[in-house]
Design a protein that fits this description.
Helix content: 55-70%
Shape: elongated
Number of strands: 6
Structural class: alpha+beta
Distance between the termini: 89 Å
CATH topology of the largest domain: Na+/H+ antiporter like fold
Largest sheet: 5 strands, mixed, barrel
Radius of gyration: 26 Å
CATH class of the largest domain: Mainly Alpha
Number of helices: 16
Strand content: 5-15%
Oligomer: single chain
Order of helices and strands: HHEEEHEEEHHHHHHHHHHHHH
Length: 465
Amino acid sequence: MKRMPPRTVTRWRSRLIYLVLMALMIFNATAVFAGEELYRSLSAAGKNKESSLFMELYRNGQDQNWQTAEEVQFEGNLRFLERDAAAGDKSPGIFLVRSLEGELYIVSIPSDDELKRTGTDVYYTNLKEMLGNKLVFRALLTKGVLDGQAYTFIRFLEPPVQLMLDKIFKISIIFMFFFVMLGMGLNLTLNDFKLVLQKPKGIAIGIIFQWFLMPLLALGMAWALGFYHKFPFIYAGMVLICACPGGVTSNLMTYYAKGDLALSVSLTSVSTFLALFFTPLILTVLCTNIPDINIPTGLIAQTIIGLVIVPLIIGMSIRQKWLSFAVKATPFFSALGVFALLMVIGVGVYTNVEKFADTQRYSLTFYIMVVSLSLLGMLLAAFFPKLFRIENYQTRAISMEVGLRNSTLAVTIALLIQDLMGDFYSSMFVTTAIYGITMYATGFLMILLYKKILPLDKDLNPDPG
């Protein structure tokens, strides 16, 4: 028998492996979108006052033959869908479990009598406190049909346990970001805020662009490209990055761009404190009309207070009392800021690497949209201030401040609230992380463009007004 040449064998083996991988990706994507559609239909039923689906699912889960159920162990998330308060069936809502592969299960909680008889009530206590974590589930699965729709029900064999890596990661980013913002506070003084009175026009225009025009630009781009309706959490990620203040990156890039560094620092300082109000407000106004999204405004405000405002005040106080220490410590905290951003994005990508295989969600259009958001924002901020007679020196600073956001804060918020919000595909994290990585490239590109569109030959000195 004639053998095939080695190269032919290798070629066919490569093709076979490729086809298998493609089949697995298609199968996984099918499971993901099936779970997503089920989640949307259940979410809509929860908001429908006339629907009794939640109560019917509860009864259907009770009627299943759990003696023949399949025992499984997997990693995933908990989600709770509330029932409309005016609903007639008085059902409090249902818990869902989503595996990391995208499959969605209805939690079937046994009756009170069965819980007491079997001693399994501890398996279902404090479930709402676990909504923000990645968990390990050891459970039983069984399938049921209700009104022609197939559902998979789940019962726990032991209490869900938070993944150790997830716990360590969240604690690490909280502490690290706290110290990064403390380091930022070491560079701030009250004089940075006094500039608001000295250069009110530049500050006002910068604030308007940051907090109003950029979020509206994100809304328009997501709407025009179809992400607003099809992938609402990608849209929420776009809004989130625009709802975060500027950071030290904008100050550094303003320095390289030969812009008004004092104005840049003042804009960063003012916008950082305004974030306590504007970040949850912008997310609430621009996102809560989407049925899939529930904004945890309280948690976002607490995060900003604990991880932004408090360390900033501590850092400023240290600088006021121990100036020499603050000056010496600044390089360390600057390096820590870069490391924190790389660590948060790196670990976040590692723990969500399977999400990037979803090319339907994260297509070329997605990447173009995210990159274009920062670039277009900086371009608009480079032209419109000229209508108000802002000097090019200041306009460069405003432009940088508008496009270069505190991406570390945005990524941190996305990771802390994604499970609580039901963003099981980590779309907010992916969006803010891609923005945080690519904004450096768009920033350097703008520095080159400033030489043409914002020359400094005739206005080297900033306008004091």
